[in-house]
Write a structure and sequence with these properties.
324 residues, alpha/beta, TIM Barrel, Non-ribosomal Peptide Synthetase Peptidyl Carrier Protein, Chain A, 2 domains, nine-stranded parallel β-sheet, two-stranded antiparallel sheet, 11 strands, 46% helix
């Protein structure tokens, strides 16, 4: 059992904040299949300072998805801290500070992963946020900005500050910002951080695509927990499978074709509740590669779904290919 303030996690495997993916529908499904903690996609700090935008982020009583963290990104420690306070006021359970995002548009605006070059900025942001909120404050970083010695020194300064200042959880992705998602994630530095700072709660991230790999990384690395990112896109069942293996049970049988189709329809319908058809259909396409991996005729099914242009076409194609 992991505790973060009043929050308790009954297994050390959680869903990553994924920009453009981990909205309400993906979080709801992850929780149903056993994920103990989910996050929003990254949210720009200034959103929280606009009343109309913030109002849309409030939870409804029927949402039933807690605990859920708000991941915040920005370029001013005071604004980030003020935004964190607003997110907690509207119902989020914890704050996750993003200093890892490698998206070019984020880096150009001196946010996210760009700030791995500024340990002082990161430290100030955490301390200002800690002053503003009475909840767990997490931090997401990478193993460096690039492969240079200067970046390595910055990385270790950030980790040392996190341990000294009492960051509730430090999530580390095993690639540099410069690498983005290329190559294989390097867990060696993540392991070394846990050895140097045994009292700092560390969650590792990178290339967790199967439940077996998730368990293996947790056991071999000695970290406190593991974050599942791309492996959970179009695959909420991964949390059910991880939970079974973590509890020493056999991995559940793969979901039947019918169950896969039903979950896809439910996911799509939730998307359609908040987006009009013109936006819902292309948005849902982002999840299709993950869902179709479990279909025995993966390529044909994926191509048929990607060709859909209307809501009804998506629904009918799922019904046909998943035998509903």
């Amino acid at each position: 059992m992991l505790k973060f303030g009043t929050l308790q996690l009954d297994m050390p495997f959680i869903q990553a904040p994924l920009s453009g993916y981990t909205d309400h529908p993906m979080r709801v499904l992850a929780k149903r299949f056993g994920c103990p903690l989910t996050f929003t996609g990254v949210m720009l700090d200034k959103i929280a300072l606009h009343h109309k935008a913030l109002k849309k982020l409030k939870f409804q009583p029927q949402d039933n998805e807690h605990p859920v963290g708000a991941q915040v990104l920005g370029d001013d420690p005071e604004v980030i801290a003020a935004a964190a306070e607003k997110f907690i006021e509207v119902g989020y359970d914890l704050i996750d500070l993003n200093f890892a995002c490698p998206a070019p548009k984020v880096l150009r605006r001196v946010r996210g992963g760009h700030l791995m070059q500024q340990p002082g900025f990161i430290r100030e942001t955490f301390l200002r946020t800690r002053e503003k909120v009475n909840c767990p404050v997490f931090m997401k970083i990478r193993i460096g900005y690039d492969g240079s010695e200067a970046a390595n020194e910055d990385f270790w300064t950030i980790c040392e500050n996190a341990a000294t200042d009492g960051v509730d959880m430090l999530a580390i992705h095993g690639r540099t910002v410069h690498q983005k998602y290329r190559g294989k994630a390097d867990w060696s530095l993540i392991i070394e951080v846990k050895k140097r700072f045994p009292n700092l709660t560390i969650f590792g991230s990178g290339d967790i695509m199967t439940p077996e790999i998730a368990i293996q990384r947790r056991e071999e690395s000695g970290v406190d927990g593991v974050i599942v990112a791309r492996g959970a896109i179009g695959n909420p069942w991964i949390f059910q499978e991880i939970r079974a293996l973590w509890n020493g049970q056999e991995k559940p049988h793969p979901p039947s074709l019918e169950e896969q189709g039903r979950i896809m329809l439910e996911h799509f319908e939730m998307i359609c509740q908040t987006r009009d058809e013109r936006k819902a259909v292309p948005y849902f396409r982002k999840f299709l590669a993950g869902y179709c991996k479990r279909h025995p005729d993966r390529k044909k099914t994926l191509l048929a779904l990607m060709a859909c242009k209307t809501k009804q076409a998506v629904i009918q194609t799922i019904i046909e290919h998943y035998k509903l």
